[in-house]
Each structure stands twice: as structure tokens, then as C-alpha cells.
UniProtKB/TrEMBL annotation, chain A:
It comes from Halorubrum aquaticum. The keyword Zinc does not apply. GO terms for molecular function: ATP binding; proton-transporting ATP synthase activity, rotational mechanism; proton-transporting ATPase activity, rotational mechanism. This is A-type ATP synthase subunit D. One of its GO terms (cellular component) is plasma membrane. Signal peptide: none annotated. GO terms for biological process: proton motive force-driven plasma membrane ATP synthesis. Component of the A-type ATP synthase that produces ATP from ADP in the presence of a proton gradient across the membrane. It is found in: Cell membrane. Has multiple subunits with at least A(3), B(3), C, D, E, F, H, I and proteolipid K(x).
From TrEMBL, chain B:
One of its GO terms (cellular component) is plasma membrane. Pfam families: ATP-synt_F. It is found in: Cell membrane. It comes from Halorubrum rubrum. InterPro entries: ATPase_V1-cplx_f_g_su, ATPase_V1-cplx_fsu_bac/arc, ATPase_V1_fsu_sf. HAMAP family: ATP_synth_F_arch. Has multiple subunits with at least A(3), B(3), C, D, E, F, H, I and proteolipid K(x). GO terms for biological process: proton motive force-driven plasma membrane ATP synthesis. This is A-type ATP synthase subunit F. GO terms for molecular function: ATP binding; proton-transporting ATP synthase activity, rotational mechanism. It is a peripheral membrane protein. Belongs to the V-ATPase F subunit family. The keyword DNA-binding does not apply. It comes from the Archaea.
Amino acid sequence: MAKDVKPTRKNLMAIEDRIELSERGHDTLEQKRDGLIMEFMDILDQAQDVRSDMADDYETAQRKIDMARAMEGDVAVRGAAAALKEHPEITTQSKNIMGVVVPQIESSKVKKSLDERGYGLLGSSARIDEAADAYEELLESVILAAEVETAMKKMLEEIETTKRRVNALEFTLLPQLYENQEYIEQKLEEQEREEIFRLKKIKAKKEEEEAKEEAEAEAAAAAAAVEEPEAAD
Amino acid sequence: MSQEIAVVGSPEFTTGFRLAGVRKFENVPDDEKDERLDDAVERTLEDETTGIIVMHDADLDHLSRGTRERVEGSIEPVLVTLGAGGAGSGGLRDQIKRAIGIDLMEEDD
């Protein structure tokens, strides 16, 4: 509220400083938001490619496991799945995109050779191996999608935060500061006008009093001049 | 710290991933998803050794609102859904609409 501010020159200077700082911050944040959106667009293109590849891999993997189930039976597939010894692992490192820390996921033991799978060469069939291969491919796509989608989520959070800050400056803080500045300027101008008016009034009164005193002095002098000849007679 | 991949869904969905070596999984049969899927997802979310959660996109409809919001917004572990085509999970799409102001994934529908 503008009326909560004391209309003093010191406050006006402080508000002008805050306006300058807020305007500079607003411009910087706007640039940051635009930069983040541009970076996000690049990641989005990449994410859409990754998603599309992952959908293809999922379809292939499903087809292969359905085939394995049909040919070998569900029990054999589940048995092979339960025999796996090597497990895929992921490690996360981070990189910085315009101040946003996004992960870089590295995976190990996703692709395995036949002897690493643990269910043995005799205990399984080519169909199960093909399904396992297809799911290993799918896992690689999933890991890539996780990396890209985490980056997207983090970028979106930062974009939302920056956007909220820009909007708060643009629609709340700056209008309030402008309103306060205008209020103080108007009040100071009003005070200045009042001061000028008051000075004029004082000056006029003083001049009036001087004129009155002068008139009285002249009248007194004239009266004295009239009395003097009478006394001489 | 190395983490693992977890799969949550019906036994038919998880078996394939187990063939690829995934050992963290929560099997929830289709007819029990409304009652048990929430707990399975919450358990997986609380496991610090899980880095990625894989689910079928259609299974998200069986989750309660709170759990769905939590899993969709989670960064560690991050959720990857399958079966949604090129549009990604619903949560991500909504977040894009909210942050950018337009639906950038519209063309994929």
C-alpha cells in the first residue's frame, strides 16, 4: 500500500534504488527463463526420440517374450528369469545446464553374454535368449529415458521457479514500487506547493505590515508637522 | 553409490525385466492393483537403492491421487513409464503445459 510509506525524500531515493535493482533483476531473470526454455527445447527433442525408440524396443521385447511363452511355456520363462545372477546397476553423476544440476546416468551389466545370464545353455532355448536380449535392449532405452526425463523435470522445475519470480517482480513488486514512488513524488510536490504558498503568504503579510507601519509613520509625521506651526503661534 | 532398477506391475510385465537381470520387482496381479499397487509403489519409492522405477503407463490409473503425484514428481528414483507412446507420462506432460504454457507434446497424440 502506497499510504504506508512516509513521503520523505530519503524514502523516495530508497524506492528509486529498489526499482532500479528490481528492473535489473527482472531483465536478468527473463533472460534466464528464455535461456532455460531454449535448453529445454533441445532436451525435449532428444526425449521424444528416446521415447519413440523405447516404445519400439518395448514392442519388440513384448513380441519376443510372448513368443517365448508360447513356445516354451510360462513356467520355463519364469524359471529362466529367476535364475539370473548378474544384475544391472546404475551410477549417477551430474552436469550443470544453466545452473540446473541434471544427472548423467551410467549403467553397467545391462548387456550380458549367454554364460553371464546364469540359467545355463542347456536349460533354456533360443526364444528365451532372444527375449532376454530384447529386454536388455529395452533396459538400455529405459536408462537413457530416465536420464533425459529427470533432466526435463529438473529444468521444468527451474523454469517454473524463474517464471514465478519474473511474474512476482513484474506484476506485484514493481507495480507496488512504482505506486509508492508516484505517491511520494505527488506528496513532495504538494508539500513544495504548500511551502511556496506559505512563503508567499508570509511575504505578503510582511509587506502589508511594512506598508501599514510606513503609513502610520507618515501619518504621525504629518500630524507632528501640523502641530508644530500651531505651537509657534 | 550404485543403484538398481525396479519394476512394478503385473507378473506378465515384470517377468521380461527379470529376464534382463532386474531383481527388484513388485508383482501385483491385475485384479489386485486397486488395493495393492499403492503400497508396492510407496515401498519402491522409499528404497534408497532404487534409481529408476519402471511401470506400465496404464497402471498409473490404479494409483491413488497422492501416490500418483508423488511417483510422477519424483526425481530420485525417477519414474519411467512404458506403453504411453511418444508422449511420456501424464505428469511430465502436465508439468510442461504448466511451465512453458503450451502443450509441446500435442503432435504425438
